[in-house]
Amino acid sequence: MNHNTPLSPRPLHHLSAGAGRRVLTHAQLRAHGVSAAEAGEQCRSGGPWQQLLPGVVLLHPGPPTSEERLHAVLLYAARERTVGVPVQPGTDQPPASPYGEAMITGLAALTLHGFASAPPLPSLEVVDVLVPRLRRLRSTGPVRIVRAPALPVPEQVTGLPVAPVPRALADAVAVLEDATAVRRLLTEAVRGGHCDPAAVVRELTGAKLLNRPHVVDAVDALLAEGRALAEARLYRMVRDHGLPDPCWNVDLRLPGGPHLGGLDAYWPEQAVAVELDTRAPRPGRRPGDDAAWTEHTRKREHLERLGITVVHLTPRGLRDAAEQQAAAVHTALATAKDRDPAAYVVVLPR
Fold first, then answer.
1. Is residue 63 part of a domain?
2. Which residues pair with 267 in a beta bridge?
3. What is the 3-class SS of 53-91, one letter each residue?
4. What pLDDT digit, counting tens, does each position of 174-217 carry?
5. If you average pLDDT over residues 138-143, what whole number do you get?
6. How many of the other CB atoms lie within 10 Å of CB of 259?
7. What is the CATH number of the domain that holds 253?
8. Per-position DSSP letters for 142-210, written without gaps between them
9. Does this model's pTM top 0.85?
10. Are 309 and 272 in contact (CB under 8 A)?
11. CA 147 to CA 137: how far, in whole Å?
12. Exposure of 291 in the CB half-sphere (CA atoms within 13 A)
């Protein structure tokens, strides 16, 4: 038999245009008239096709490209649900993704998101794919199955469903023991503007990874990085939106009295303060977290009783909605004359 002769009564040469079309499941091949036996014949040693994963065929010889490999991983994870992309009952529209609910996660996802500290796709021996917890799938060869009771909404990157950065980070950190690699990934997530520290910490907490010392150290560095970036954005917001210069990074005290707390910015004449909310609660992480939250609330209430208006800004707000954040501060400054005079406080550098 000539292995280069198509066996399908419906030739497949028209499917070779894109990487996704050059990787098909046995079910998809059957939809094109290729039986399992015929597919097996084509995948024999020296044949024009090859089986990349159980039930997944590459329609050309030679090694797969990185894109073809990713398509194969996704098809393996959703192969019984991709028979020609079935139409949903009661509608003429196919499902949103031919891969069902499966999505790329872990290091491969971070590479797709553009992380410089993530390894290039060809160097990854294993690709993580996120699926619902009840799916009956096994990790095999280059595929590691990651299960979750609730899946995030995937992002489309180069036409592939990819887990959002916080979830991909958690799945990557779960299998990394190199403290330096973990720290680089977490730092780049914040420094590169991919996500906020709080979102990362929530995912790490949910994955029960905060009992690992090297992860805890990386999270501490992440939070410090997040605060430094938020402070820089706060300086830029004040400058770019024409707000008067405040006293930066100060401590307030009552004359001859107790310490009232530190603030990121303070306008003494208007008695308006700005505090950056860079907290990222870590449930079960440290006994002092609850105490810190209580102290934070106490400070705010005490300042407001003294007639000081406290405007809380978040790193995400400064990043994504600086104009609205500046408007909130401007409103507080402009309405200061309509409020009762605040108590006299001593302003000290922090």
1. yes
2. 272
3. ECCEEECCCCCCCHHHHHHHHHHHHHHHHCCCCCCCCCC
4. 999 999 999 999 999 988 889 888 889 999 999 999 989 999 98
5. 90
6. 12
7. 3.40.960
8. TEEEEEESSPPPPEEETTEEE--HHHHHHHHHTT---HHHHHHHHHHHHHTTS--HHHHHHHHHHTT-T
9. no
10. yes
11. 10
12. 4
